[in-house]
Design goal:
The chain has 217 residues and is α/β, with parallel strands linked by helices. Helix content is 32%, strand content 20%. It comes from Helicovermis profundi. It catalyses: D-ribulose 5-phosphate = D-xylulose 5-phosphate.
Amino acid sequence: MVKLAPSILSADFANLLDDVKKVENAGVEYLHIDIMDGHFVPNISFGPIVMNALKGKTKLVFDVHLMIENPDNYIEEFVKAGADIITVHVETCTHLHRTIQKIKSYGIKAGVSLNPATSVFTIEEILPELDMVLLMSVNPGFGGQSFIESTFEKIKKVRTLITRENLDIDIEVDGGINPSNVKMVVDSGANVIVAGSAIFKAENINERVMEFRKNVL
């Protein structure tokens, strides 16, 4: 089953809970929460305080994407704020295995994210420890960017590695996904779709979610 994960970076922060309820009522499964520190990526978003404000007010899975340096220092805070999944970047983790084990020690799921220029083979050794691989289909830091076409082949490579090892791992793709290209993303092997502006900025969120669903059937 394909899961949809709207990114709250594109939500209206003056009415954040209302927007979260809109996507929840539209039937999405995850809420993608992008955490940016202004160092690893050229933008700053927010921290655990925003998640705490939503905690207990929605049944959506909190899919937390840490685009930050030294993620080990903040994992516990995000767990306390309600994270169900925490994904870290291979590019920021000196001891990736240790970081993944730290996340899983809290009883939640762990994922690893790769920037567009990072090879899938950087995670080959850690793959059996993961619940999810997040492939960036734009360079992280800002919403509304265009999908990088080479991501299709990258998704296929990761799916091949997962299948070869007979593993049960989600492949999430984030950046520039809309109803017109989502089928190609899913056909390449992804099963969790992050969409920010394509969902939150739609005139009718229910209809837009239905459009995504229809296009991947």
